[in-house]
Amino acid sequence: MLQYSQRKVIASRVLERILALFKPVLLRTAPKDSHAITSPTVVLVEPFQMGDVLSLAVMIAPLRERFPGAKIFVWCHSRNAHLYQDDLRIHRIVHGPFPWSSRSSKRGTLSQWLTVLRSCREMRAYRPDIAIDTRGDIRSQALMLLAGCTQRIGYTTYVGSNIHLRGLLLSEPLDDPTVQHRYLRNLNALKPLLGFMPELHLPALLRHRVQPPEKGESTIVLHPGAGWVYRRWDEARWAALIGELQQLPGVRTVLIAGPGERELCHQLSERLAQPIEIVVTNFQGLLDTMATASLFIGLDSGPMHAAALMNVPVLALFGPGESNVWRPLSEKSETFHHIGDYPCHPCTQRACVRPSDSCITRIEVEEVFRAAVRVLAIEGTRA
């Protein structure tokens, strides 16, 4: 379980109590019976990282099945507003800067906080019927309250941590003391609406279905980037792995990168004995590239979650993150996570107490290579 400081735990509870005092003023009407609503406005609230927002995809199909005429909104950080822009199942994306979800220690400018309030006003104008917070975050629950959402579903436990709320801002609080995989946790949040927890069905990113590779060729897509520095595998290991993969018969290797990762991929390519294709693209281009992949190899990052949600086989390399919450659930996927000698795990990833011997460095090139051979079922090669 992730242990946050007592200061943060207490601050969350105090903020909850203060905001609860304003609940009668902020709410326009009493909560409606979700079973009596045929075409509700449903808001999925997730102002944090790319993987968090992508994890909401597993909820869309069950919501559509229960409420065919529903207007489904995604309320997220502006940097993730593009993730569902081509998904016809989503009615609208509302976004804001949300300073608390930044990886920096800055608390945000006055302009950012004013933009957050404008985002709340925009959402309030849509008169949302139902809002869901799958993280268990007091700030997300505050957003639902400020937007005047009449039925507010959310967890009282911040995902996988020691922060426990009382559910004072929620109309239907969910108690979840155990750590669940994020996809399953998201599906469990639909219980108050459906009466049961729906099954997980992949692919959940339906616009980009996985296409079979050309006969006789397997494409391995690799993404060496990660938003948090302590999640990254070093370049020497990436180069050694790619070098071995390039020797496999009938295998094409592709490095993918976002606009800010171009230099990382070019530095990595300079270490290789053979040239490698590098695709620097936006999110939609990333999905197009992965749609033809036979295998994806990456870190605990947004592209890894996108590959898993597309049901692409994934080899996921975990370091300080929580693999029990975020491991890929797509077919033939494997997770590498060696934390037995690390009592500091899980950590907040703001700093590392063992920087010269971090947990991500315990993953060996050979074990990842052998797993790739197993997934691709290449005969005559060590596995």
From TrEMBL:
It holds the Pfam family Glyco_transf_9. Keywords: Glycosyltransferase, Transferase. Gene3D superfamilies: Glycogen Phosphorylase B. GO terms for cellular component: cytosol. One of its GO terms (molecular function) is ADP-heptose-lipopolysaccharide heptosyltransferase activity. InterPro entries: Glyco_trans_9, LPS_LOS_Heptosyltrfase. The keyword Transferase applies. Signal peptide: none annotated. One of its GO terms (biological process) is lipopolysaccharide core region biosynthetic process. It comes from the Bacteria. PANTHER family: LIPOPOLYSACCHARIDE 1,2-N-ACETYLGLUCOSAMINETRANSFERASE-RELATED, TETRAACYLDISACCHARIDE 4'-KINASE-RELATED. This is ADP-heptose:LPS heptosyltransferase. It comes from Granulicella mallensis.
